Amino acid sequence: MKRTKAVIVKEFAHIFRDPASLTIVFLMPVLMIFIFGYSISYDLNRIDAGFVDLSHSDLSGQLLDKFTNNRYFVMHDLQSQYKDPLAQGEESLKAGKLKELIVIPADFSQKIRNNRKAELGLVIDGSDANVANLVYQYNELILLEFISELRNLKESLKISTKVYFNPEVKSAFFFIPGLIALLLVMISALLTSLSISRERESGSLDLVFISPLRSHEIIIGKTIPYIFVALMDGIIILLFARFWFGIPFKGSLLVLLLFSLLYIITGLSLGILISTAAPSQKSAMFATLLVTLLPSVMLSGFIFPLDSLAAPLRAISYIVPATYFLKIIRGVILKGAELKYFVVEGLAMVLMSLFLLAVSTVKFNRNRKRSA
Q1: Tally of domains within the chain
Q2: What SS3 string covers the chain?
Q3: How confident is the model over 117-147, as pLDDT tens digits?
Q4: Are 192 and 277 in the same domain?
């Protein structure tokens, strides 16, 4: 028992000598239960729907009131805003501004009152399979309520539902582009997060400190080589998704590569920042997984709609790089969206990269002065 006790005491000593790993071990479950508890929800709090009412009748007004009075739907009158509301509706679906387009034809009310088939057009954005299914279900509830209030309407109403960008509502079309975003940021951050901590453990970092190079030159020099490595990795993942899983590619490869490059630089910058602060490679790896894997899965729209997140978590999602790249990669691959739709997302990633590199340089410079 004395010998066993000695081993136990020694192991506890090892545990408490590594406070960084110990903090991560206890912090991870707390963060996971907090994030999972507030983010695991497939409910939608907001569905932006555009409508084009060509009938302008009492019946069409009653139908639109059903959607407007439903707490999930935020209705947008496209006719009052645009000269060509139908074309603009399709553009808004492609840009991700709308989740649904409702089209009421001019003869809607007249056909119903004459006991003839009146068609109601519903167009749903299917790029997010989960959201598309929820929108479809909410439509059914509203239309059933509308039908139940009007006599003989059930036989007179024909509902024509189209799902754009993913007609078969395949989950793979939604998850595979998300996986590409997740893997890219994780790999990019891991590549650079180990660079400075590796040199710190081997003792070669002191030689870097006394070199005539400036701190920002070292940081940039350590980042650039990994850009090519991560970009090649991204191309391999993309090819695998296209030819193995059969994910369609409707947009411009050049546009996707441009934004992938920005996203990779953001991930590498995050890894460099972690590397300047982490005392060891193990701590750097743990920290990288913590700040990339968990937020990218739970807080970026990868699995759960951003609209279903609690307000504090939705605010945090704006500083998660995957939030922006997910919109880009799904928009380019599934919708064929052009560069003009993602200016805000691209600018956000550029600002993130500059901020992370600036903080990394300041942190590295402080470490350098401390060791001098």
Answers
A1: 2
A2: CHHHHHHHHHHHHHHHCCHHHHHHHHHHHHHHHHHHHHHCCCCCCCEEEEEEECCCCHHHHHHHHHHHCCCCEEEEECCCCCCCHHHHHHHHHHHCCCCEEEEECCCHHHHHHCCCCEEEEEEEECCCHHHHHHHHHHHHHHHHHHHHHCCCHHHHEEEEEEEECCCCCCHHHHHHHHHHHHHHHHHHHHHHHHHHHHHHHHCCHHHHHCCCCCHHHHHHHHHHHHHHHHHHHHHHHHHHHHHCCCCCCCCCHHHHHHHHHHHHHHHHHHHHHHHHHCCCHHHHHHHHHHHHHHHHHHCCCCCCCHHHCCHHHHHHHCCCHHHHHHHHHHHHHHHCCCHHHHHHHHHHHHHHHHHHHHHHHHHHHHHHHHHC
A3: 888 999 999 888 888 888 999 999 998 888 8
A4: yes
